[in-house]
Amino acid sequence: MNILVLIKQVPESQATRMDESTGTLVREAANSVINPLDLHALECALILREQSAATVNIDCLSMGPLAAVSVLKEAIALGADQGYLLSDRKFAGSDTWCTAKTLAAAIAKIGSYDLILCGERATDGETGQTGPALAAMLDLPVLTYASAIKRSADAWQVRRMLEDGYETVETTGPAVVCILKEASVPRLPTLAGKRRARAAECRIINAEELGIDPADTGLNASPTRVVSIFRPNHLKQSERLSALDPAGAEQAVDKIIAIFRQKGVL
Amino acid sequence: MNSAHHGIWILAEQSQGRIDSVSYELLARGRVLADKRKHPLTAVILGANLPDSELQQLIARGADRVLHASAAELAIFSPEPYSACLCALIKEEKPEIMLAAATSSGRTVMPYIAGKLRLGLTADCTDLDIEADSGLLLQTRPAAGGNIMATIKTPTERPQMATVRPHSSRPAEPKPGRQGEIRRWEPPAALLGSRVRRVSFEKAPDERGIQDAEVVIAIGRGIKKAENMSLPRKLAELLDAAVGASREAVDRGWVPYPSQVGLSGKTVSPKVYLAAGISGAVQHLAGMQTSDTIIAINTDPEAPIFQYSELAICGDLFTILPLLAEKIEASRKQS
Prior knowledge:
The complex is a heterodimer. By secondary structure, chain A is α/β, with parallel strands linked by helices.
């Protein structure tokens, strides 16, 4: 059985920079890590392998600058078997449609999978769109907001977190499943895993090798365009109170109560 | 080619045959766009034979037209039949703009459709407008972890598609007697298949959610540890308020995830939002800045949240919150 986990490299901190001319994220600017939810997706794959009687192969696929090899190696240290990185300047600036299209082209090339897992969203873009778009392009069912996944008889059984409760769904064939934090607790890499990762060779695939139509990848092919970026401006004329001494605290609390009364909530 | 596309669509949602109020938020958004474009506003709704009286609600709240795809298989959300039906309708009617709510279903079906039809889609918009010269949809959303806002366009592909953050606008009010057309459509069986089967559904307990509370007491890193959560909880109980939290407080395990307010949590707009020990990262502000009145308590006089607050209190939450609870209790005893 083959499982593919999609891994995105994201900036570690919230202090992300954007390129003012293209409106895209500057990825080299900050320290990069695996997108946290992708670690949960990988952990689900590792658990499914542990629970399976059959041999389960876990591949990881990422798209990004060459430096993103480091997140694939981290995935290998945690237990993944093979890493693939889509890296080419021609892919740069892809929106979610072009990213999904590029990933779909890669998946068609590298193998056939019984399950594709990804994090529900990435901490940088926060769109959560790539997984479902990829499923549509591969003509696979998509199971989003997965808070648990298991193999039940010959089906994938997924518990989905919805606004009003939990839905349990099943599908027998291959599917794309988008994983939430609740689905697993990521393990730490072992020493042996780290050694394996150091020795592992990730496969780098460029646009030419992928054979993707230039009209399907990169900034210029993307249906959406960032036209402007700005700092949110909801600044208000604040009334400022210093409440560092007891009298100030007293006054501040009276003012809060006055607002509660005025708003009719007290 | 673009001129062939006409009309503004919103994707309304229903559960158990009743229209969800998020649909009315979309109608409020869609009405503004439709008036600016001078296009008709259509509410599309999938379900199992909804009665006219229910569909009429959409017209009363701003739709010029209701397009109801009706089949037993559409009673509850399922990505494949929903996507197949919507793709067929989009190809047939060629709308210019399509909006859906950024809910678990909207955020699933919209990217699936976008993937199928090669469409541009912007997630989780908090502001929508029409560009004066081009007539293009301007889609604004928090970006880069919420530190900045980005405005996004889809220059060529039609319809232009966006999901809209629930609770980021007020629902449209009904206007009794408003007239509109209802089209019922029974999709062919070929569109209704699904490879996914629902096994069971567990309804969450009907506790009042943070998005429905009139007062939210929100806590950030300043609360320091889980044991201190009794302070805001007591205050919330006194005020019949909900407890909210910043991402940091949730990541540290002090407050459960359903209470997280912000870009990666929920959006709230209560009458009063009291933020204690929250510095105000834009990621957090994105989820609460539409609140009626914002009160912030922070020991750091430079905390960014102060600039977004009506009342900015430079002080210690460990002094202010207990004193506030005490005074509220005292005033209740008097009366």
